[in-house]
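The instructor's notes for this session suggest beginning with a concrete chain rather than abstract definitions. Hand out the sequence below and ask the class to guess, before any prediction is shown, which regions might be ordered.
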Amino acid sequence: MAGGQTASECARRGLIAALVAAAALAATAQPALAERPAGPPVRLAAAPSSFPARVLSTVAARTGCRVRIVPPLAPGAVPSAGTDLVELRGDDAGALVASGRLELIEESTVAGLGDVPDRLRDAVRDAAGGLRAVPYLWSPQMLLARRSVHGSKPPSSLRALFSLSGAPRGALPDSPLELALAARYLGVGDPFALDRDELAAARGVVAPARPLLRLYSDAAALRSLFRRGVIDLALGNPATLGDQRRAVVAIVPAEGTIATERVLGVVAGTRRAVCARRVAGGLLAPAAQARLASARGLLPVRTAACAALSESACTALRRALSQTLANSSMAVHPAASEGVTGWPEWVGEWVLLRG
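After discussion, reveal the predicted structure:
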């Protein structure tokens, strides 16, 4: 044999080479499995009903990262030790973003994030433009008009709510953020960055109608007002009306509207940052987006969710992301800066309005 090799030695070396090649091929065929980090579950601070078990089990199977739900973060609170990921309203995330409590997110590391519109992402960036949270659901406020009263031509202007003629049968969410909507009515460029005069002017828009308007605290209260026939017009999210939705026409106000979003923030310093980002990406997957939107009465942030939606639902989503979102100012927690009022001033103006 060449080089003094016996037939058995050649066969043995050939077998070893074949095994090495097979192992390399297997690693190439399943890179996701090789990259999946092992370890304890990602601790996600959220309300127990925020994420259906089926969604979390699908995310775990997709990413290799298990999730454990822990108590939600109270408004204004900071994440407790051991929390890896937090779920909260985008307008409540401002303090965490400003304080550096949320990790800077390299956007290419979160699957599906590139499909989320900039308008949704921009609301949770830090002062340097870095992304600090991942939007995964959102909701615009729309004018909701009872069909039996307003027919095929519902009011299209916020004037219908803020005037004395519409207010006796109207309802508005009970939140200082509604002052931003009044600011949009006035034509203010950034309705969440108001100086003292603009803030007072926004209150002045609502003040004449306020004694006649109903203020509601949540979706259940809004449904009750419509069901009992107390109101014919309201500002709110049509998806939360449940079986009453067909009896109501929803339209984006001509002056534009405000919108809220639900976001996921990776807690700064967590040792589970890689898995936390993978979980966030898993919740942006089309099937997860569709299930979460249905369970929460909110809108997906990706048009890719159409793959798991009916044709009519897909059409509505595309319209919302291409048209409604373009006319929406994303809610942020008003922060004081030079010449601009902060949240305490907004609350004070709302207290004056309610009184």
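Then share the key points. The chain has two domains: 35-139+260-316, 140-257+333-354. Residues 140-257+333-354 form a domain with the D-Maltodextrin-Binding Protein; domain 2 fold (CATH 3.40.190.10).
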